[in-house]
Amino acid sequence: MHPSHPSPNGADASGRGPFANVPWSLVLGLGALALVRPLLSITGVTDTLDWSPWLQLGVTAAVSLAWVVSVVVARAPRPLLTLVCTGLAYGVFSIVLSAALSPLLTGELQGPLTNPLGLAGVVGTNTVWGLVCGVIALAVRSALDRGGSRV
Asked: Are 91 and 125 in contact (CB under 8 A)?
């Protein structure tokens, strides 16, 4: 194959590919951080505090802020793709967590693995969450690069 032509699998001639420069340790770490959301429900913390919707929204906002700040501070080369992959990773992690814990807690498999639409919904929703956070991270980084101290 001629070096100036991309290969059919999406990798360029240097072998870098579409996911080049994605900091995978950051993606996996931030995806794992978001597991605090389902763990609060599983452990009963949200029920005990009796402000479940507000706690979940607050935790989601805190995780989103952590994602955005992390990719901006780390100067991730591709913040949008990094956070899309982070959302996807979290979706997969939460499905695995559900599959591992539901038989232990309820005696049977429950959750997204039992419903293909639920599976797609979890993965899709969390990927979109990563996309939204990635757009915000791009805007923050752009503002910081332009004017620095005004943000």
From this structure: yes
Measured over the CA atoms of residue 47, residue 48, residue 50 and residue 53, the dihedral's sign is: negative
Secondary structure class of 85 (helix, strand, coil): helix
For the chain, how big is the Rg over CA atoms in Å? 18
User: DSSP character for 151?
Assistant: -
> And the tokens for 148?
């620095």
Q: Which residue has the tokens 């240097």?
A: 14
Only one residue has tokens 């402000």, namely 51
How many secondary structure helices (H) and strands (E) does the chain include? 6, 0
| Mean pLDDT across 134-149 | 89
Taking only the tens place, the pLDDT of each residue in 32-74 is: 999 999 888 888 787 788 776 788 899 999 999 999 999 999 9
Are the C-beta atoms of residues 139 and 145 closer than 8 Å to each other?
no
Which stretch of DSSP H or E encloses residue 138?
helix 116-147
Q: Which amino acid is at 87?
A: G
Answer yes or no: pTM beyond 0.70.
Answer: yes
